Model the fold of this input.
Amino acid sequence: MRNLLPLIWRGNSERYRLLGSKCEHCGGEFFPQRSLCPHCRRGGKIITMPMPRQGKIVSFTLVHSAPKGFELETPYFLAIIELANGVRLLTQIVDSPAERVKTGAFVKMVFRKIFEDDAEGIIAYGYKFKVVQTVEQTPKPAQTKMIQNNPNKPGKPSLKPQKSKN
Amino acid sequence: MRKVSIIGAAISKFGEHWEKSLRDLIVEAGTKAVVDAGVEGKDIQAIYGGTMASGRFIGQEHIGALIADHLGMNPIASTRLEAACASGSVALRAGYLAVASGMYDIVAVGGVEKMTEVSTEEAAIALGGAGDQEWELFMGATFPALYALLARRHMEQFGTTEEQMAACSVKNHDNGSKNEYAQFRNKITVDDVMNSGYISEPLKLLDCSPITDGAAAVILCAGDKAKKFCDAPVEIAGSGQASDSIALAQRKSLTELSATKEAAKQAYTQAGITAKDVQAAEVHDCFSIAEILAIEDLGFFKKGYGGKAAEDGETVLNSQVSINTSGGLKACGHPVGATGVKQVVEGVWQLQEKAGARQVVGLKNFLTHNVGGSGATAVVHVLRRA
Done:
């Protein structure tokens, strides 16, 4: 039986706080963390560096046939996202209307349960991402259900001037 | 570096072999290859075996020792090599380098996988080890999901369609129907693929290669001694291997497998040819999109045009370049560690004109392309008549 506890525990700072690495020699930023800069190798100087928590979707898929431990969540979105500093990672996209999960959509990090190891009772938490609006976009009322902290909640009059119908 | 030729080649039937163990499969393929080569067991000086996950599937590691034991070859030097789905090809390359270096004159290379002893769910976990365990699988990714991410990019950037990907599966089943060793001999249509149900969008069941038991083996010989054993030895004219990030997220591009391009460049350069000199190839179609990426990255078609080429029939048997004459991973089957060696066996049979209804006419150069995981390893070989 595999002992997942050390593996989960070692990854906490990365999964909880998106702490990656930076090489002070070449400026490269990496997630997950590395102990050796892949460009400079021994010539590099690796330090811990928090990654930006916003990004955009580069590619995505809707998983229907899930691996062990994820069956109850299907279908769920997996995506490769690119963070604001250019670093990419693979993550689930959650709490977002399906029609808004597309390439180029802006996303931000949220903290979620990733899986539960029944045998040992260990729960692994960490990052997932959800689609957010950019500052410029104004959502239609029907689309605001899944977005929190948005002034354009259904029923409230829009703050933008209405276009004349004539 | 001296020339190396293949003097014997054999595979087991690919399929669900409840009645055969891993050792049964490798003995079957190994002895048939030795007989085909016309060598004696005592002539073989080393064994190189490829298998990806025997520990996970049947709890057996130390496959090198197992093969030597069950082929009655002790105390021969016998090594297992692993590179996920490219395990067979890296075993072949190790055998090739051993003979080319002058260390040995005759070696045996085999590939085997016994996948049906575990549930489909367990098999998926074992195969998942080809990706990044801690940062892809951990997050809920499966192999279909990883290739689906590649497919989405290819569709969005080049307009590749699901129907074009389906055309690859249809062609491979058509070729498989002519291959007595193939797991699937049934023909399918594009509609069959489109209706087969999503595994991870946009990939559907019939876009995915199956779970298979099987083994393949070849006997390699120093080029100048090959004609002693074989009337039509096949030379390994070029060999290339390259790696890339194990996780998809760290790739420079999501619309190509750069390890394929690098490995192909090495093999083409060594063989003194370019892509247009290749008339037939076995490429790594673990998923239909992988075949489209392969025929582009190997230089047969321009980047972005692979889907159209498949749809327009430019990769069927005896077209511009016959792709996956054996039926590929999709129809012939994908016993993971065996695939790389099976691809070479198909190349040998094609070049020796033993391919029957699948025969490619006018064949000069045959290419094999084997990938590990989502592209973290790629191995390319160019074969031709010696």
Notes: DSSP finds two helices and eight strands in chain A. The beta strands of chain A are 19-23, 29-30, 46-50, 54-63, 76-83, 88-93, 106-117, 122-131. Chain A has a mean pLDDT of 85. Helices of chain A lie at 5-10, 12-17.
